[in-house]
Design goal:
mainly alpha, 1% strand
Length: 506
């Protein structure tokens, strides 16, 4: 009952006019960046970081959460109407969603996606409310060895497990770790990798890195390599923007199965919602093959319902893992973790004790955001699709200007603007070479935690590094990591052998 009382206090804080406004603003921005090609919630949160430091922390994080959820509500719109998913998390939804649109059921496809995201997000939010305090209490037993194991788990899974090329993922991670160690060493006081430049003594701001890599790098990439891309033809939705009783009976089990698949991935740093959406789609396809009249390939509503629910349930649980464990499972969550630190807050058990008003208002805002997103997506999906008519030149030029203004407003330093440009070029090269960006962000965010934990563990054990595997929690984490790596290696070997057989047969 204490949880319900605290949640009630959270609703009292979240439903104030100011905070309610930021919920709506976050949901609108998240849906907009989800619909627009090449953008995403991670870029939106990165761009908003410099301009939200003047806000109350509660208002800022309520808006960030709205952007995070809204990005998943909106990114399937483009995939359904144009067969071009806005983000990787919407690829699985595109397979059957676009076929529904081509069959004259675009309005029903958009409704299926919106309701699926609502169901997944709402169930995840309910679980987070009851599980987050318990996870926070559990994390209070973590010491340096446990935090190092947790950071190492995040590093390995995000850089090698969820990427097509493990070497590129590890390279991106090492680049993030390298940026994180620039500056004055907190223990010895000696400058590291500063090359004698005084401006680097305080290190490189995570805000500058995230804006440069995620936003400015995308702008340069579009300007240099993606100018030839043309927008496809939008399928115009016709008919009723709601589902019939028969369609609801068809979609409901898929929504629940997709939600169940997505929930565990919210506490596993496996790259976000891409993997659970594909798993949910694959399960529905296997179940459909057993039916007398298989629908997959013809516009199966269950092939759209399950991935949408899986994506948002993963996002909801990810917020719980971020608040209670300080564990980011995606680039967007990593940026939000950095925002907590910019406000002088550390997610985990201390956050629930030191800032309960913020935590419970934020948890309450999840429920409000789900309702707001359903309202602005269910009947108005076609209105959001009109954003695709914005010329790319104007859109990305505005993003570039916003990048520069945001960084200069927070630091007032021309050096930071030059750093923004330099790292932006690095982000462009990473995109051009198909190097994943999430490992870099997570490496920079968790790098200081891993380094501090490793040093503290070694110092407390007089240099005996066996202390890193002395407790039950590190052993369990390393065992799970070993199992995940073994499964990943096996699946990639099997896939490679299958591709070779196809080449031989051809």
């Amino acid at each position: 009952m204490d949880v319900l009382a605290l949640l009630g206090d959270g609703f009292a804080g979240a439903l104030t006019p100011a905070n309610l406004l930021w919920v709506v603003v976050g949901c609108l921005l998240g849906t907009a960046v989800g619909v627009l090609p090449g953008l995403g919630s991670s870029m939106a949160v990165a761009l908003l970081l410099p301009v939200t430091f003047s806000l109350d922390p509660t208002a800022a994080f309520i808006m960030f959460a709205g952007v995070y959820f809204g990005g998943l509500f909106g990114d399937s719109t483009m995939g359904i109407l144009m067969n071009t998913p806005g983000q990787a998390s919407a690829i699985a939804s595109t397979f059957e969603g676009h076929k529904m649109a081509l069959n004259g059921r675009a309005a029903q496809a958009l409704a299926t996606a919106a309701i699926g995201a609502f169901v997944g997000g709402m169930i995840a939010s309910i679980l987070v409310v009851f599980l987050a305090p318990a996870l926070a209490a559990f994390s209070s037993s973590f010491g340096p060895a446990e935090f190092f194991a947790l950071a190492l788990f995040a590093f390995v899974t995000t850089s090698s497990v969820v990427t097509d090329d493990a070497l590129k993922g590890l390279g991106s991670l090492c680049l993030g770790l390298g940026i994180a160690v620039i500056g004055v060493d907190g223990i010895s006081g000696a400058p590291r990798f500063t090359m004698g430049v005084p401006e680097l003594f305080d290190g490189i701001s995570l805000v500058t890195v995230t804006v440069a890599i995620l936003a400015l790098g995308e702008v340069i990439y579009v300007a240099c390599l993606a100018r030839h891309l043309k927008d496809g033809k939008i399928v115009q939705p016709k008919g009723r923007p709601w589902l019939s009783k028969r369609e609801l009976r068809e979609a409901a089990p898929a929504w629940l199965r997709g939600t169940a698949i997505g929930l565990p991935f919210g506490v596993v740093p496996a790259g976000g919602s891409e993997i659970p959406t594909f798993l949910a789609y694959g399960l529905e396809k296997r179940l459909d093959a057993r039916r007398k009249d298989p629908q997959f390939g013809k516009g199966a509503i269950r092939g759209l319902a399950a991935p949408e629910a899986a994506g948002n349930s993963t996002t909801g649980m990810a917020m719980g893992a971020l608040l209670s464990l300080g564990l980011p499972i995606s680039a967007t969550a990593a940026i939000m973790l950095a925002a907590f630190r910019q406000y002088g807050l550390q997610p985990g058990p201390l956050l629930f004790d030191r800032a309960p008003d913020l935590v419970w208002a934020l948890l309450a805002s999840f429920f409000i955001a789900m309702v707001v997103l359903l309202i602005i997506n269910l009947p108005f999906a076609m209105v959001w699709a009109k954003l695709l008519r914005i010329p790319r030149a104007y859109l990305y030029a505005g993003i570039a200007v916003f990048c520069g203004l945001g960084i200069y407003a927070t630091s007032g330093s021309v050096f930071d603007l030059l750093m923004l440009l330099g790292i932006g070029i690095v982000g462009f090269l990473m995109r051009a070479l198909d190097v994943p960006l999430a490992p870099l962000i997570i490496g920079m965010v968790l790098g200081p935690l891993a380094e501090t934990s490793l040093r503290d563990a070694a110092l407390s054990a007089d240099g005996d590094f066996s202390t890193l595997v002395a407790g039950p929690i590190p052993i369990v984490l390393y065992a799970i990591l070993a199992i995940v790596l073994a499964i990943t290696v096996r699946s990639k070997v099997v896939a490679r052998r299958a591709s070779k057989r196809e080449l031989v047969d051809a």
